[in-house]
Design a protein that fits this description.
This protein is mainly α. 77% of the residues lie in helices and 0% in strands.
Length: 163
Amino acid sequence: MRGRRTLGLADVLLDLARRLLPAERRNWASAMRAEADQVPQEERLRWATGCVWTAVKMRAYSMNTGSYRVSRGVMLVEAIGAFGPLTFAWYEVVSGLPGVARNSGHIQAMWMLSAVVDLLGPIGLFLGLRYVLAGKGIQQRTFGWTLAAVPVAANLVGAASGQ
């Protein structure tokens, strides 16, 4: 197997750095790879780790636009990852079979609160997917703050009641 080079951990990290770098900094990946070839073998892994760290910082820097705008791809992941399970929880609370625990007074009140709070799941999923598909975000700032404050308030009520 002459001529075939085995990939080491440093090479894998350099490839990762290339993928992580923002599009406008992709030429840095070529420079990092060229410089890595000049670094002594015992220092190469450290060099590659530093390249990945730099790529992560540059990616984070390029994502910081100074506004609260989110790309549609990020919103798709957020909507499904955050509001999907909450939608499922809401469905389970609302349509679940009645049980002995649900019929007791204190727990029934917590189920009702959970049904209201978990309703944010389908609302958030709908609004997130609407933004992904149509580019329409929330127009009223008060509504957005309310969507964020309701789960916080529900957690505070649950913590205060010992549940």
